[in-house]
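CORE FACILITY INTAKE
Project code: CF-77B
Contact: R.S. (postdoc)
Sample description: multi-component assembly, two entities in total
Requested service: structural model of the whole complex
Turnaround: standard
Below are the sequence entries exactly as provided by the requester. Do not edit them.
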Amino acid sequence: MVKIWQKKKLIILAVALGLLIFFQFLGLLRPLENSIVSASSGLAGRLHGLSVRWHSSYSERWHQENLNLNISQLEQEVGRLTVANAKLQELQDENNKLRKYLNFLVPGKYKYVMANIISQPALLGAAEAETELILDKGTKDGLKDGLAIVNEDGLIIGKIVETEDNTVRACLVTNYNCRLAATIQNQTRTIGLTDGNLGLTIKMNFIPQSEKISIGDTVITSGLGGSIPRGLVIGKVIQVDNKSNEIWQEVNIEPLLNMDNLTTVSIIIP
Amino acid sequence: MGRRLLIIFIFLVLAWLIVMGQLSLIDSLPGFANKINLILFFIVLVLFFLDLDNTLLAALALGVFWDIFSFAPFGFNLFLLLVSVFVLHILLRNWFTNRSFYTLAALNALAVTLYGLLSVLLAWLIAALGPDKAVPGLIYWYFWRDLFQELIFSTVLSLVFFNLLTILGRRLQPFFLAKGRN
């Protein structure tokens, strides 16, 4: 009798599972899913924020010994960047004036959609190199695959790889599945594709040996082949691997943002 | 009927909170802390303290919420959770004779291992149906590292939870009956 009941239960569950999958496939569950996701995004955002705060305090405590060294390095960097910024400001003013003279349209600023990170899935067996984000905006907000995700400073974080009505899945630039068309700001404006390297840095391969790349060169998006505009900063070159017996050289790029403190991001709609 | 509906409602609310806690809070925690699997732990607790019917109900609620927030094909987590519940139920009925800490820890370890292996194999099967080359996650060292870390955390969680219950309640006692006493 018990065995018959167990069998019956198994059949009921299998039918329920099958029906759920079938209804989902037909899109009948979509309104329910959307309302659950919408209702949950507030709580999810807060929980993720809490997690990020714990993460930050943990990192700060963990890396306290390096902080003093970092501060002095950053002070030097701030000084250098202030000078560079002043020069750029002048150039910008000059550029604006010249555009007016030439009656050019000043390029409009990008259209952004702000989104909260609601999850950073840590799948069992997924390497750090496959780190992803789930955001609380989706196709209903005009998002689609391939769009760039940036932080508040305009540094590119990653791009959208999958969309749903109310959520999107995005890969980080350090994810080895996240490829971006990039340009190195050297003399020859070397172009190529970047992808993540062990979830920590970014690498750019298949660069001809004739290209001259220096450590410290800035790498930006090239704007080629996709929905990502040109000029978003990816990172700085920290290592150039150019063995004389190789056809290509490879560069290692350090992303300029701290991925651990992200709670809110912007998606650029071209 | 009213009681049953209340239980279903409680399971739905708990499942929503647990899935939110897992995906938004625990998964983003630093270090090894993100290896805690609250979803599996809750399922094992329900199976340990209640019965198969309630565990299936919990697995159904958890699986649906998990699938809604996950980008895996719908039904992926739900199917794996239901299979895991059935296997754990069979093991609990046939292998374990009491409700001790050791049973809870062993069930948790089995749940983590079973779910980990099944999810990687199912993901591989799904990927193999697609156009890209599919490689089973079992061959990567970090899969085994993560599984090991999850096993450690599930055991620690069992230890903390079971001892907390023995302090708060009287039904569970963390000792074996010693031969020759009384």
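Facility notes:
- The longest helix of chain A spans residues 64-101.
- The helical segments of chain A are 2-26, 30-62, 64-101.
Invoice: internal transfer
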